[in-house]
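Lecture notes, part 5. Sequence design as translation. It can be helpful to think of inverse folding as translation between two languages: the language of shapes and the language of residues. The source text, in structure tokens, appears below.
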């Protein structure tokens, strides 16, 4: 009965989404406030109905209701409760239900917190958001219904993919979808602005908090996926330029560019056309990521290789919304007044440089990800585009971006002084030089460019700190005045500085683990010892163990340093029974200086085992950096000025679309 209620709620949600799509936009065209207000009620009603459907599917998983085909294919009665719950979205049908639930959540949030929006703009935003729900609810009901019954019901399910049975990956998809779907609000604002002609600094102020929230969730979602791949897949690395990783990375890059572009539009009434285009592209790249992981065109450890017919449906949705939005943009963009002018050396110029480098990097990732697929579709030839291509194209674009990053906040709006900004960054330059010298002293020999990368990370960190210090007049004013200025600094300023510090911390981790990673592959028998990066590891043999739904062979390694035992690492090889799948669990000793990473390989002759050892210097700084970036976004989002409408400007006329003759 619960499944039927969930299915019926989905159908009702589709009907409500249709109402949300049609009536508010129609009311905005007619100037009918009552019809426009229907959008808010419909958005909240749609959220309630989808929540009923999602709870119904969750109950089916928790109770192991094997009369549902979805539960049979993705669950098992012996699974731990955490993975029964995460199994709800650990499959195609359930994940799409979560997708539309989050879509409705964002639409309802606009209805609830968008009271300061002009009624016609709010109505159009909710109408566009409703149309996206209509498309995906139609897709779910017609091709991917999670409530399909089977008869007779089997006594047991097939189980969830074992590599997905992990705490980090249990929460990775919800955060990732919050980012993916969050950009739909920026998309809806862009399309609504093109419809109404209201593209002005107030529009940029309204769209920034939604974009920032989506960017935050996508940041932490990508980070959790990277962390999972690091310790679960046994590859010893943190990023592999996997096509599915790239599918989430591209909208993150576009969203980062959108945040900075919207800032220019809000402060200087400039870059209007570019900002609207980025809002469309960010969500379009999210739709492309959804298509790639569900069309069967990619083979990845974390993609949904499903019926290609479903991929065609999603492709049609992507073409409809992306193509329609770009067509509307093309018809209106030429009629927009451009707004304020600025010199190349200015804060606006620095943000434009930021946008150019980030979007070019995004284009490089886009080409490297899709070119092999396009080539195979056209010619049948198969090629592989891997890390060498991405490192050679993406990396060089990031270097000038990181160098320029601290300069932006020190430049004035409209016209800046590059020499003055350089003088204010002397403290950052001093610490950067110290970091480079220290890195050369510690590394001893090669790679010789790595210390420069360490210096680059320190430059970004100290540049952000220097900005806060400069604004507070640190060392230039009495202490009480400095403290007063620090208290009065807007939270958005602190948030931006913290996010930039996070980027610098992440750069330190990336450079260190890439340049100075140690690796050793050996065959060990019980009692034998191997050494790496100053650690001694004594192999004490392998013992069997039994988990809740798997059996495993656990390797035992006694780790010593300087003759003293530090810890014991227990890497293992697991065999899950439902479905029958073998996985590798790494043994990791985490420390601030780096991770000792041990992977148990296959059994060899005479009781020996193949073992891989890695030492990844400062690798944890990568994920610490992303957490700091998330916190920076959270601090900025807490700034009330970022959550209310932009103040009216007496001397600046709102940009309007000039009616066609």
């Amino acid at each position: 009965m619960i499944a039927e209620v969930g299915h019926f709620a989905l159908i009702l949600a589709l009907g409500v989404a249709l109402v949300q799509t049609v009536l508010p936009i129609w009311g905005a065209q007619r100037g009918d406030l009552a019809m426009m207000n229907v959008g808010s009620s419909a958005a909240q009603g749609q959220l309630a109905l989808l929540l009923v459907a999602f709870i119904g599917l969750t109950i089916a998983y928790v109770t192991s209701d094997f009369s549902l085909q979805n539960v049979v294919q993705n669950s098992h009665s012996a699974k731990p409760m955490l993975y029964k719950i995460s199994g709800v979205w650990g499959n195609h049908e359930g994940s799409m239900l979560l997708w539309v639930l989050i879509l409705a959540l964002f639409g309802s949030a606009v209805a609830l917190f968008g009271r300061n929006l002009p009624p016609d703009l709010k109505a159009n935003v909710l109408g566009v958001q409703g149309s996206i729900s209509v498309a995906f609810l139609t897709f779910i009901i017609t091709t991917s219904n999670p409530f399909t019954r089977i008869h007779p019901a089997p006594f047991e399910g097939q189980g969830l993919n074992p590599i997905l049975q992990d705490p980090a990956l249990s929460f990775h998809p919800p955060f990732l979808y919050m980012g993916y779907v969050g950009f739909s609000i920026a998309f809806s604002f862009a399309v609504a602005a093109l419809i109404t002609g209201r593209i002005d600094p107030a529009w940029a102020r309204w769209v920034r908090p939604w974009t920032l929230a989506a960017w935050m969730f996508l940041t932490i979602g990508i980070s959790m996926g990277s962390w999972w791949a690091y310790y679960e897949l046994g590859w010893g690395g943190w990023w592999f330029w996997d096509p599915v990783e790239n599918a989430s990375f591209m909208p993150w890059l576009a969203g980062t560019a959108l945040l900075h572009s919207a800032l220019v539009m809000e402060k200087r009434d400039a870059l209007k056309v570019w900002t609207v285009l980025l809002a469309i592209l960010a969500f379009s790249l999210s739709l492309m990521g959804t298509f790639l992981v569900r069309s069967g065109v990619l083979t990845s450890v974390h993609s949904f290789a499903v019926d290609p017919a479903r991929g065609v449906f999603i492709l049609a949705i992507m073409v409809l919304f992306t193509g329609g939005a770009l067509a509307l943009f093309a018809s209106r963009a030429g009629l927009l007044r451009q707004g304020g002018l600025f010199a190349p050396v200015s804060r606006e110029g620095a943000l434009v440089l930021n946008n150019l480098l980030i979007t070019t990097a995004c284009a490089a990732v886009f080409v490297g990800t899709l070119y092999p697929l396009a080539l195979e579709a056209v010619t049948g030839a198969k090629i592989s585009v891997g890390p060498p291509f991405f490192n050679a194209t993406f990396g060089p674009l990031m270097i000038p971006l990181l160098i320029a990053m601290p300069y932006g906040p020190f430049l004035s709006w409209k016209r800046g002084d590059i020499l003055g900004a350089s003088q204010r960054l002397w403290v950052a330059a001093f610490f950067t030089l110290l970091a480079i010298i220290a890195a050369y002293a510690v590394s001893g020999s090669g790679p010789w460019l790595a210390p420069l990368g360490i210096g680059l990370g320190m430059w970004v960190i100290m540049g952000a700190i220097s900005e806060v210090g400069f604004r507070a007049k640190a060392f230039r004013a009495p202490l009480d005045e400095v403290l007063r200025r620090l208290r009065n600094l807007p939270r958005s300023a602190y948030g931006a500085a913290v996010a930039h510090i996070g980027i610098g911390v992440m750069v330190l981790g990336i450079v260190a683990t890439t340049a100075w990673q140690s690796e050793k592959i050996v065959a060990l028998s019980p009692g034998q010892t191997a050494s790496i990066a100053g650690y001694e590891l004594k192999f004490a043999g392998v013992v069997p163990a039994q988990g809740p739904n798997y059996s495993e062979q656990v390797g035992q390694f006694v780790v010593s340093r300087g003759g003293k035992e530090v810890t014991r690492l227990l890497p293992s090889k697991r065999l899950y029974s439902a479905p029958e799948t073998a996985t590798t669990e790494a043994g990791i000793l985490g420390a601030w200086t780096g991770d000792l990473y041990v992977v148990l390989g296959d059994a060899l002759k005479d009781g020996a085992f193949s073992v891989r050892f890695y030492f990844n210097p400062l690798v944890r700084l990568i994920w610490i950096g992303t957490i700091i970036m998330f916190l920076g976004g959270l601090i900025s989002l807490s700034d009330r000025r970022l959550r209310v409408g932009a103040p009216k400007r007496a001397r600046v006329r709102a940009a309007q679309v000039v009616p066609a003759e």
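The translated text above is only one of many valid answers, since several sequences can fold into similar shapes. The first strand starts at residue 518 and ends at 524.
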